[in-house]
Amino acid sequence: MTATAALITNDPRRARRKVAFAGAGTPYLFVAPAVLILMCLMGIPILLVIVYSFIERAVTNPDFTFVGLANYTEVLTDPKFHDALAHTVLFTAGSVLAHLVLGLFFALVLNSKFMPVGLRTSLRALFIVPWLFTIAATAVLWRLVLHPNGVLNSVLAAVGFDAQGIEWLSSHALALPTVIAVNIWAGYPLFMISLLAGLQSISPELYEAASIDRAGRVQQFFHVTLPQLKTTIVSLALLDAIWTSQQFPLIWLLTGGGPVNATEVAPTYIYKLAFSQYEFAEASAAAVVVLLISLLLAVLYVRSNAKAVREG
């Protein structure tokens, strides 16, 4: 038995497997602090919100009274929540679609071989300007521009339009489209830079082959450029949809969800429910609903990336 144990101990293959097994856990040790921090900063608050959504008068009530799905029923039957979700869908869809169109257009302009290098550099710096502003600065800037006596109305009046006193952010009909327009201006550089990188990675040989087959510029765009950018476009659109659906500071600083809830989206609805009406339980239920929608988008994003990796 002693000899056998010695042979096993001295077996180099067994020793290598033991070392490999011991070293396999090393990467997880390096990741552990970050995971722990994320659990503390994100996991615990999310868990508390889920717990609060099943409690009557959470936070303000010292007694934890379980009410089941009552808070969810209250929120899901609230017409204001329906309006907030509808506004969120419009805000997200309009922003993402415009980000894609503008980003692709500007990327194509900057990738053009017929443009002088100096002009291309100047335009690239100009197009990326919105990224230089924080959300707070963007909101303040556009509140000044969109003021009834501000720059926009003055310019429109100067070119012959009757724009005197137009309330861009106070009109029930104009407020939501205006906020969407501001968000489009603030967010299109992400698409532009990402799609420009994608355009520059497309092999020129593909365009040469298309030219040999007598494909025109339009045909090359639809049969070469767009298919090559498909993965980038889908990933960007899903990621932007997640971010835009959770946009709070820009809308809050521009309109506060008004006028008369015209720009009320899910994040501002939840904020008001929690910190203006102190209905923390119902706010938690609404937050869980929004979280589930965001998780669905996140799953689609991860699956899209995984598919892109498999297709390589």
Number of helices: 14
Cα(first) to Cα(last) distance is 54 Å
Number of domains: 1
Could you name the ranges where pLDDT drops below 50 across 5 or more consecutive residues?
none
Number of strands: 0
Residue share in helices?
over 70%
The CATH class assignment is Mainly Alpha
What is the subunit arrangement here? Answer: single chain
Shape: globular
Strand content: under 5%
Give me the CATH architecture, please: Orthogonal Bundle
Q: What integer is the average pLDDT? A: 87
Sketch the topology as an H/E string, one letter per element. Answer: HHHHHHHHHHHHHH
Structural class: mainly alpha
What's the CATH topology name?
A: MetI-like fold
Our Rg estimate from Cα atoms comes to: 27 Å
CATH superfamily: MetI-like
Largest sheet: none
What are the SSEs and their pairings?
Layout: H1 2-10, H2 12-24, H3 26-52, H4 70-76, H5 79-110, H6 117-127, H7 135-145, H8 151-158, H9 175-200, H10 204-212, H11 217-245, H12 249-254, H13 266-275, H14 280-311
List keywords for this structure.
globular; MetI-like fold; mainly alpha; 14 helices; 312 residues
Textual characterization of the structure:
With 312 residues, the protein is mainly alpha-helical. It has one domain (27-311): MetI-like (MetI-like fold, Orthogonal Bundle). The protein has 14 helices and no strands. It is globular, with a radius of gyration of 27 Å. The mean pLDDT is 87.
Describe the structure concisely for a colleague.
The chain is built from 14 helices and no strands. With 312 residues, the chain is mainly alpha-helical. The chain is globular, with a radius of gyration of 27 Å.
